[in-house]
Every structure is written in structure tokens, then in C-alpha cells.
Amino acid sequence: MRARAARAQLRHRGQRPPRGTGGRGRSHLAAALGPGSGRSAGMTSKDASVTGDDFGYCPRRNQGIVDCFLAGAISNVSLLVNGSAAADAAKLARRHNIPIGLHANLSEGSPVCEVLKTNSSLLNQDGFFHGKMGFRTALSKGLLNMSEVKQELKAQVELFQELTGHLPPHMDGHQHVHVLPEVRHVFAEVLEEYGIKYTRVPIEPGLHNCDWIPPSLMEFYLGVEEDSFNTVDVFTKHGIRWPDMYIGLSTMGRNMSVSSIRSAIDSAVLQLTARAPHSSTGTIELMVHPGYPSVPPVGGCGGGPDDFSQSWERLHELQTLIKPELQSHYKSRNIQLCSFKDL
């Protein structure tokens, strides 16, 4: 009853995106469906975890994620501890018993480690992180000090624990920086040191067939995929686990729709079945980012809200995720939402 009432309330909030523009969302759905590779144990065909990323980015993002959780559309969140509303997000998670993990950020805003806020290889000339592509460029040129990367990651884990009262059950990377060369090794060491069991490996089945994705964006996604393939052995060596399948690149922002999520889930289920036809378990992660659009100057991680957070796509994702037909599809595929800590 609570989820149904929340969905009804949400339909009256904000403006819908322009007619005919489509849409896709970013958050995470870790869903246990059918057979899997066995990387994540203890799941049944009726378990799933759906996680909303960027919790803590701004008050409006926080409220949208909470509303989405109360509507039964997500079951897990990832916190940006350097987000301008991180403390408020942690309080909301406690108030509503929302399972919460860490969205480690090395690319947007400011570091949380005090000694790295000046004269650090992680900062650009303006004193902020290098940005999604700037971080990758600096890394490729050998300009990033991996000891500083490790220092900042540990500081974010410590701040997460301070804000929430516990260590994160799962930890992934904002803008997928955690699977990049060199960074992946440091990231894995930090997870092992703190006993954090779960992460994300963004390898999406069927990605190459998504002809609606612009070439420039597809180039970035394929780079993320290649980095992820090269990360598998590193994470395995450190005893880190992740869901068998990942969805979220092809269903992001304007590309999110009930049909796109439904198709991506069905494709993942088919691959799980083909991989292990006699298994009764398997896991899938769906990445999504629901929320209400940021209103400048409020929000961001130190440098104000970015264009993505201000766009109609955040609300579009929220409105898509709470649609009854999507919830019905989960039920038809024996998907029952859970959190990473239940894996």
C-alpha cells in the first residue's frame, strides 16, 4: 500500500519530458534471475537489488531517490560522500531504512582528504578533480599519483563510516573510474583492506547492438567495457564479488524506458541461461540515477551541479522506474528486490 500511494503521489510532481524524446536511467539494479556464473552466492531466482546512484549530490536528488525507494522502485543506494548533501542523505537513509553503499568519486568536485585539497595530482588548475574525461587523460599521461588515489579512496570509506555508522556493504566508482588501469589495483586493495565484499563490473550484454547510442558515447561505453574485462582478474584475486550481469549503459538518461529495461533484463536472463542452463541462481545489476533535477547553485560535489543533474532526464528516470508495468515485469520474471547486503 505504501509503494502504491507513493507512486500515485509522484505522478503529480514535476513536468514530464517532451513528448517523443524517449529516456533511460542510471541507478543500479542487482537482480538475481535464473542461472548465473556464481560470482555472487546465496541468491535465488526471486531476489534482486536495485540501487540509485549519486545519493548525496543535492537535496532534490536525495528526495527523488527516497521517493523512488518508498515507491518500491529501487532497493539500494550509493552515496557520494563529497556531495553537497551527503550528510542529509545519510540521515534520510537511516530514517527510511534504505540500504546504502559507497559511490567512490575521483573525477567530480573536491577530495575529502584534507591533505589532498591542495598540491595533489588528483586536482586540475582550478583545484577540483580532473573530470570524467580529464581524469582518464591525466591517467594515460602518467600524471596521477596512485598513492594519492589510495589515500582519497580510504578517506571516502572513513567518511562514509562516519556519516552512516557502518562500512559500505558495496563500493563502486563514480563514472566508472574504479575499472581504469592502475586505479583498479588500488581500488581492489582498499576493498580488501576494509572487508568490502561487493562492487560493480560494467560489462553489459547486447551493448554492441544498441544502435540508438550516439557514436561518441558508444566509444566511451566500449572503453568502459574493455577496462571492465581487464579488471575481472584483479578483483577476483582480491576476493571481490559482483553480480553476474550488468545493465545500465544502454538504459541511461533519455534512453530509459519500460521497454528498454525490459529488453535489457530479458537479454541478460537469456545469457545467464545459456551460460549455466542447469543452475537455478544468477545475479544482474541495473544501474540507474532517478531524482528531481538540480537547481543551481545548489548541488554538486564542490563545483556546483553538472548539466546531467539539471536535466529532465533525472525526473524521467524516476517516473519510468515507478511505472506499474515495469513492476509487473519484475514479477513476471520472478524478480524480488533486495539490497547488496542480502547477496
Automatic annotation (TrEMBL):
Gene Ontology MF annotations: deacetylase activity; hydrolase activity; metal ion binding
Keyword Magnesium tagged: yes
Entry cofactors: Mg(2+)
GO biological process: carbohydrate metabolic process
Compositionally biased tracts (Basic residues): 1-16
Ranges where the record places region Disordered: 1-47
KW Hydrolase (keyword) present: yes
Stored SUPFAM superfamilies: Glycoside hydrolase/deacetylase
Superkingdom classification of source: Eukaryota
Keywords: Carbohydrate metabolism, Hydrolase, Magnesium, Metal-binding
Family of the protein in this entry: Belongs to the YdjC deacetylase family.
Function: Probably catalyzes the deacetylation of acetylated carbohydrates an important step in the degradation of oligosaccharides.
Name the UniProt record assigns to this protein: Carbohydrate deacetylase
